[in-house]
Design goal:
Blueprint: H1 6-9, H2 14-54, H3 56-61, H4 69-91, H5 96-116, H6 125-134, H7 140-160, H8 162-166, H9 175-241, H10 243-255, E1 260-264, E2 270-273, H11 275-281, H12 285-288, H13 293-304, H14 313-331, E3 335-342, E4 348-359, E5 365-374, H15 376-399, H16 402-431, H17 436-447, H18 452-458, H19 460-509, E6 514-517, H20 519-529, H21 531-536, E7 540-545, E8 551-554, H22 555-576, E9 582-590, E10 593-600, H23 628-638, E11 642-646, E12 654-661
Parallel strand pairs: 7-9
Antiparallel strand pairs: 1-2, 1-5, 3-4, 4-5, 6-8, 9-10, 10-12, 11-12
Helix pairs in contact: 2-4, 2-5, 2-9, 4-5, 5-6, 5-7, 6-9, 7-9, 10-19, 13-14, 15-16, 15-19, 16-19, 17-19, 18-19, 20-22, 22-23
């Protein structure tokens, strides 16, 4: 197994590593330049000797060429200049002392060549070439050392021996400054080049550090994966030990499912049925397997009702089942139907049946399978709902309270929406139920029933099957709980509708009759009539009730006004687009009159509409009819009170207040 370096898995910080790489690259550059100058020094030494032998004598004594003292100077002085830099370059490459020694020696060689050639102008270019070579170090300090040597050489020899440096017997005392200036001119460009080169080196170092970081991440990932593989091997061994327990769990799950499950082969014969389905048919598994639906229907007729040989519901369902099986085998499409069975006591039992094709590994349809869910409770709830709805319509027509009846129907409609949502959720859960996957699992097990141990241990799908079945059991249990919860919600909504109808009927009976009433109870009744809409539109109702005395008034007229005001407030909140929709119901006693305020935080009423809002036919809603507030104002006046509104403008909400006399005589009405 490959060993992974811990330093690579946990690398240094990127900036630190980049600095190390940059320093290493810079050191290699210095060492390479040191080796180059070691060779160059030897070549220059030999070149100096050649210049002294063939060139220098001619420059010093005209046409006569002979061995001169300069030859010995070239040999021994050049050797002295060469020896130390070469030694340092070989023994201590890359050190600061080495490259500065080489810089000084290189410029000293330039001075020697200028001297040997008698101060020829062409030889001065050796200085510029030497500076260019020194730039290979990529260290501007080396150029400073070389420049100082050149300047000092030109100054001293230009002052005391101008012929050896300038080729003339006398020279301007400032001529050395001119030469030094040109050297500084070249230094400027060389230093700029060095800075750019160092910047490039640093960029390369940073990129290399980034690559190393990425590589370390990859190696860390490999190490983690290796560890996980080791864990997976250990977990696989545990899975093998739990294989028998998983098999027992699977069989228990299939047999205890709260739904019927069956599967047929290509000829329409049952090849699998669970316990729930067998109980529905009142047959055992052995009696059902290998038979078609028609054969089972005939068997049931013969054993349970031998006197009746005519067509029975069971035979009709069997014919329907075989037709569905043929359609699935031809088209490969899912079929959903509702079937009715009769219980032994004669009561009906309704089932929602989902039938789907069974495919082999190549995708060919080789059979059909189905899931049956009991929806009797839903059907009963729908029937009760229909009866309640009919009662509601009859009560509304008899009461003659158009506005209140509209509100009641609207509220019932909201409850019906909840019922519809619950019914849709139940149907959706039935369609999306994972019970069908049980049949697929059974197919896999039956396909390997002779080698289950090896299948659950080595086959990739088989190893996943026990845990999958456990999760499927939990999901199916959750589906059953969700369906029961939705059925409970249906029953609750039906009870709510009954309460609304009963309340409407009680108000209808009291039409035109003066009664002593508690104001807060009237307000609560109006809230209950709009409660479904409030909940559906997420409107918060706040109650601010003060202690007020009972009033003597007509019950249905006050309720008509309050229901209309609360419904309008709900619409105003919806149209505002706010998320914190709120309606405040306030009851208080002021100026000897009982006041009921309906306050919302909705769209408000523009100032120009405050005087028109109670007019007949005036409305700001597209679906409004324009007589709700008008009739409410008239009813309030008939009761000896008043209805008015206060609003600060657009999106500032509105406050509608109904005033009623604290005490009212029958003669006033």
């Amino acid at each position: 197994m490959q060993t992974i370096n811990a330093d690579n898995i946990n690398p240094k910080p990127r900036a630190v590593r980049a600095a190390e790489l940059f320093q290493s690259a810079e050191n290699k550059v210095h060492q390479r330049a040191d080796r180059m100058f070691a060779i160059l020094m030897v070549i220059q030494w030999l070149g100096g000797i050649a210049a002294a032998l063939w060139i220098s004598p001619r420059t010093w004594i005209g046409a006569t060429s002979q061995t001169h003292l300069h030859v010995w100077a070239a040999i021994f002085l050049g050797g002295a200049i060469t020896s130390l830099p070469v030694y340092l370059a070989l023994k201590q490459p890359g050190r600061i002392l080495t490259r500065h020694t080489i810089a000084i020696a290189q410029m000293t060689f330039s001075a020697l060549f200028i001297h040997l050639t008698g101060g020829r102008l062409e030889t001065h270019f050796h200085v510029f070439g030497s500076l260019a070579f020194l730039a290979f170090y990529r260290d501007w300090r080396v150029l400073v050392s070389g420049t100082v040597v050149v300047a000092m050489d030109h100054f001293l020899r230009g002052t005391f021996w101008p012929q050896s440096v300038f080729g003339v017997l006398t020279a301007s005392p400032w001529r050395w400054v001119e030469h030094a200036g040109w050297v500084l001119f070249e230094d400027t460009f060389l230093i700029i080049s060095i800075r750019h080169s160092l910047s490039d080196m640093l960029g390369l170092a940073e990129r290399q550090a980034s690559l190393e970081t990425v590589n370390a991440d990859i190696e860390r990932t490999v190490a983690d994966r290796t560890f996980k593989l080791t864990q997976e091997i250990a977990e696989r061994k545990k899975a093998e030990e739990a294989l028998h327990e998983s098999q027992a769990l699977y069989h228990s799950l299939v047999e205890q499912l709260p739904a019927g499950v069956f599967r047929k082969d290509a000829e329409g014969r049952f090849v699998f049925t669970n316990l729930w389905f067998c109980r529905l048919k009142n047959l055992t598994t052995e009696q059902m397997l290998g038979k078609t639906a028609q054969e089972l229907a005939a068997y049931e007729l013969q054993n349970h009702n031998p006197e009746n040989s005519s067509e029975t519901p069971e035979s009709r369902l069997a014919t329907q089942g075989e037709n569905h099986h043929e359609l699935i085998m031809q088209d490969g499409k899912q079929i959903e139907v509702e079937e009715r069975y009769d219980n032994p006591n004669g009561t009906p039992r309704f089932l929602h049946v989902v039938k789907t094709p069974v495919h082999d590994a190549g995708g060919k349809v080789v059979g059909s399978q189905g899931i049956l869910l009991d929806i009797t409770a839903i059907k009963e709830a729908e029937e009760k709902l229909s009866q309640v709805h009919k009662q509601l319509l009859d009560a509304s027509r008899q009461a003659g309270m158009a506005e209140v009846a509209t509100s009641v129907l609207h509220n019932v409609g909201n409850v019906l929406n909840s019922v519809n949502v619950s019914s849709s959720l139940i149907a959706e859960k039935m369609r999306d139920s994972k019970v069908a996957n049980i049949t697929k699992s059974i197919t896999l097990i039956r396909a390997h029933e002779n080698d289950l141990g090896n299948y659950f241990t080595n086959d990739p799908k088989g190893k996943l099957l026990p845990n999958y079945l456990a999760n499927l059991a939990a999901n199916l249990a959750q589906e059953q709980a969700d369906i029961l919860q939705e059925v409970s919600s249906l029953v609750s909504n039906i009870v709510h509708i009954k309460e609304i109808v009963s309340m409407q009927q009680s108000y209808a009976k009291a039409s035109g009759v003066l009664e002593s009433l508690q104001v807060t109870e009237l307000v609560e009744d109006a809230i209950r009539m709009n409660n479904g809409a409030m909940n559906r539109h997420q409107v918060t109702v706040v109650r601010e009730f003060a202690d007020v005395p009972p009033i003597l008034t007509e019950k249905h007229k006050v309720l008509q006004i309050l229901v209309n005001l609360i419904r309008n407030a709900k619409y105003a909140c919806d149209d505002s687009g706010r998320t914190d929709k709120q309606i405040t119901l306030r009851v208080f006693n002021g100026d000897g009159r009982i006041k009921i305020s309906v306050i919302d935080n909705g769209v408000g009423v523009p100032q120009e509409n405050l005087t028109r809002i109670f007019g007949h036919g005036f409305t700001t809603r597209k679906e409004g009819h324009g007589f709700g507030l008008h009739s409410g104002a008239l009813a309030a006046k008939e009761l000896g009170g008043a209805l008015y509104v206060v609003s600060e403008g657009h999106n500032r909400g509105a406050n509608f207040t109904l005033e009623l006399p604290a005490k009212q005589k029958k003669s006033d009405l």
